[in-house]
Design a protein that fits this description.
single chain, 389 residues, alpha/beta, Rossmann fold, five-stranded parallel sheet, 10 strands, elongated, binds adenosine monophosphate
């Protein structure tokens, strides 16, 4: 999720800039002012309570604010992220926002302050008052709103400065220039996020070849449990010996062996744009483990891809591979090959189904030349980067 709070005195341009950002980053917009005006229009209990306070330019009590925000947030749990305008407006509300983010299992990325002088806010609000139809856009109420802002709202900045989440832009410039400055901040935020991909498919569907090439093209770290285990075998480590024995019996390697290897790989890879997992998760248990491993690094799965190849073609490819130097210990006989396909069918297909229900799985046709399949996957990865919020 990408969660941003736009901050600044009334008239700083929060509403105008929000309109761009909501579209560009597909965010869910939460303007407490708009929500309150809606409640007033519908003459709800909350609206009636807020009405007289808004009319004088004061701040509405936190109890009301929490109720309207909570209602909106919990009705939209699948949003790409939230853009807050006019909230948090007090130091207390900054804590409230923390709590709401925790409830959604997410956090605020940053607070962007639109800096304008007091005279400029007044000038803009008076100008807006001519057409906005807002009764609080008149000089007397404007002065009170600004007084509230400087007394109660400005201290919120310290909260975010201390947390290192404070960003600022010069909002005295043109709408387009301000927009550009905000975009730069958001792009920098986005580049911190990881594109984590799980690449599914039957053995022989091309996951390995494609996964490695995709990782190289997009600066992702390729995490394939199979090759990691093979490496242990090659080195002749204790783990390697155990693994070899399991392979020869066509069995899956236990999680106690696989997980520490992945953990090490995640810890040692710095500066990557994301991870691409191949051959993991293979079971329900491993799907939970993967969530846990990524969570530890403040991240999560961004995209799940399944390469689809018909069974007969798979057998053909695997048999062919077994006759080359690339023959793996686990595809040295037709029985072992069939056992692996069965394992995938019994243990991994249900995992893919679970992901299908939870996040959706992108199915990609794995037939055709390497380049054709590579292009199909690349297209999805690029979409993934665009949607990384
Ligand atoms: P705005 O549309 O953000 O300028 O808000 C208009 C009015 O709604 C403010 O002057 C306040 O009276 C009230 N309001 C909006 N957001 C809040 C908030 N987070 N806390 C308290 N009052 C708010």
């Amino acid at each position: 999720m990408l969660n941003i709070a736009l901050f600044g005195p009334p008239g700083a341009g929060k509403g105008t800039q929000s309109e761009f950002l909501v579209k560009e980053y597909n965010l869910f917009y939460i303007s407490t002012g708009d929500l309150l005006r809606k409640e007033i229009k519908e003459q709800t209990q909350l609206g009636k309570e807020a009405q007289s306070i808004i009319a004088t330019g004061g701040l509405v009590p936190d109890e009301i604010i929490v109720q309207i925000i909570e209602k909106t947030i919990t009705n939209n749990p699948n949003a790409n992220g939230f853009l807050f305008d006019g909230f948090p407006r007090t130091y207390i509300q900054a804590y409230i926002l923390e709590g709401l983010m925790i409830k959604l299992n997410t956090s605020l990325n940053c607070l962007i302050s639109l800096n304008v002088t007091e005279e400029e806010s007044i000038r803009r609000l008076l100008h807006r008052g001519k057409t906005s139809g807002r009764s609080d856009d008149n000089e007397e109420v404007i002065r009170n709103r600004l007084k509230e802002y400087y007394e109660k709202t400005l201290p919120v900045l310290n909260f975010y400065k201390e947390k290192g989440l404070y960003k600022e832009v010069n909002s005295m410039l043109s709408i387009e220039e301000v927009h550009q400055q905000i975009k730069e901040i958001i792009q920098a935020e986005l580049s911190k996020r990881l594109l984590n991909i799980v690449l599914f498919g039957y053995p022989g569907s091309g996951r390995g070849t494609q996964g490695k090439a995709i990782a190289k093209k997009y600066g992702l770290e390729y995490i394939a449990t199979g090759p990691m285990l093979d490496e242990e075998i090659k080195k002749g480590t204790e783990i390697g010996k155990k693994v070899l024995n399991l392979y020869e019996n066509g069995l899956l390697v236990p999680d106690e062996i696989v997980v520490p290897l992945i953990e090490k790989k995640l810890e040692n890879s710095k500066g990557v744009r994301g991870y691409i997992f191949k051959g993991f998760p293979r079971t329900f248990v491993q799907s939970y483990i993967l969530d846990g491993l990524l969570k530890k690094h403040g991240s999560s799965i961004a995209k799940i891809i399944e390469l689809e190849v018909p069974i007969l073609e798979l057998i053909q490819r695997l048999v062919k591979r077994s006759q080359t130097d690339e023959c793996m210990p686990y595809d040295s006989s037709i029985e072992k090959i069939v056992q692996r396909l069965k394992d995938h069918e019994n243990k991994t297909i249900p995992v893919i189904k679970k992901y299908q229900e939870l996040h959706g799985v992108v199915k990609i046709d794995g037939m055709g030349t390497f380049e054709e399949v590579f292009e199909r996957i690349s297209f999805e990865i690029e979409n993934g980067f665009k949607n990384l919020r």
